[in-house]
Amino acid sequence: MSDVTTPTEEWTKPLPTPDDVNRDYWQAGTEGRLLIQACPHCGHRQFYPRALCTSCAGEPEWLECTGRGTVHTFTIVRQMGMRAFRNELPYVVAMIELDEGPLIMGNVTDCDPESVRIGLPVEVHFINAADDVGVPMWRPVPAR
Amino acid sequence: MSWNRVAVVGAGLIKFGELFDQSYEQMAAGAFAAAVDSVDHGFEPSQVEAAFVATQRGTLWGQEGIGGNTVPSAIGLAGIPCTRIENACPSGSDAFRVGAMAVASGVHDVVLVIGVEKMRDKSAEEGLLARAAAGHPIFTRGETAPVLFAPFATRHMHEFGTTREMLASVAVKNHYNGARDPYAHFQSEITVEDVLASPSVCSPLHLLDCCPQTDGAAATLLVRADIAERFTDHPVYVAGFGVATDHPYLHEKSSFVGLKATQLAAERAYAMADVSPADIDCAEVHDCFTITEILDIEDLGFVDKGKGGVASLDGETSLTGRIPINTSGGLLAKGHPIGATGVAQLTECWWQLRGEAGDRQVELRHGNALQHNVGGRGSGVSVINILTTNQP
Hints:
The complex is a heterodimer.
Chain A: E1 4-5, H1 23-30, E2 35-38, E3 45-46, E4 61-64, E5 68-77, H2 83-86, E6 91-98, E7 103-108, E8 121-130, E9 133-140
Parallel strand pairs in A: 1-8
Antiparallel strand pairs in A: 2-3, 2-4, 5-6, 5-8, 6-7, 8-9
Chain B: E1 6-13, H1 24-37, E2 50-54, H2 70-74, E3 82-85, H3 91-104, E4 110-117, H4 128-134, H5 150-160, H6 164-178, H7 192-197, E5 200-202, E6 205-206, E7 216-224, E8 236-245, H8 260-273, E9 282-284, H9 290-299, H10 308-313, H11 330-333, H12 338-354, E10 368-375, E11 381-388
Parallel strand pairs in B: 2-3, 2-4, 9-10
Antiparallel strand pairs in B: 1-7, 1-8, 4-7, 5-6, 8-11, 10-11
């Protein structure tokens, strides 16, 4: 279980609409759990949630992740047309390589954007965009 | 492969730029007229049997409901069959491929391929950049158009030691070429220092690493190769093409130092044309950002993987280099009116192969030129066309 934050201000970024395929994924986020899919037929692991395995068209099952990964690559965004994101400039968009294998796109928060590097260990935390939608975010693993 | 050979007998475009005073229809008419005027032995518009129009995003001028019907009446050909092709940033190159297949199949003898795009009529809040940012509802994280390529630059620099100066050298070269292209949006030379001093947009990309938003239109006329002599003594032929898709979303790419869609499309295009990268005299490739051209020239096989930055800095891709790239100024200087982009690139290849590129003319050794686009949330689809002066 990872940290879950419920912001006091209104969510003004694009709000996902849970559907039959991804409803469990969004709900798990509100509980601090990160789900990806694993295919029981071919073993392929994938993010984001889809009806079929992208590798063999089998029916995938949920796999709960540790919530740990490393930054595979990233960029620091300094110009943005959409107000909801512009208010947060500069921010990091990174490809996080999960310990379970797949990459996931995410923002690295709670640190100086300039300090982000390829290989940086990160852990997931969640922000509730709605009662049934927990959005995964990432921050550097605290030094022990 | 059994297909009727296809010749390009006319090609042209309008001056690219911020064309607030020109309507979509006017831009289409201008490009069509330029293509008609370019036909050596003359061309009657009524000879067009069918048209394929590329427009990627009609909402940028408030008309998403544009079908194939929008263009024929605008160019005085109401009634002809016309189909709109939308395939992301390669829309224009895919319209050309589909037009070529219409002739290759034997269904039509004379086909118009036209690309038209208005990019500047909407404000930034409503325009392409904001729409790109809207992204996918499941995992959007504030990505903009440059975010679709900047992480490749970060990773390429990490793995291969590519430098900011190498990225900048691509912009410097393409603006140099654009300054020699009367149709380019930007016609001024720039320096590496200018690129590095321009504002950071999305690390490591600066403003001058990014293509502008540009209005434009371009057109080509395709005919059955065995009737090409009616139109010109200097036909250019379609040697082959290739198309490939990849996972559309950034985090599912198998690599951040290459574009799988380009690699697959290139394999298919080279096989169909029966040529290798060494047989290409010049290429127009998708340089929406400087890093994209570096990835392109590697994925197209012009340089080894990881060497694109060094090759650019060393001038291998300049007008007089080993493999001249984006002689028109590319998307970076000529501009990127999406539906028109591929058709305009093909026009540049046509001029180069006919020896009509003026100050930008490259040395022709093999008589082959390659045109490439990649797009679709960055790199979800790639289309490549290869043109040749060699008799099929």
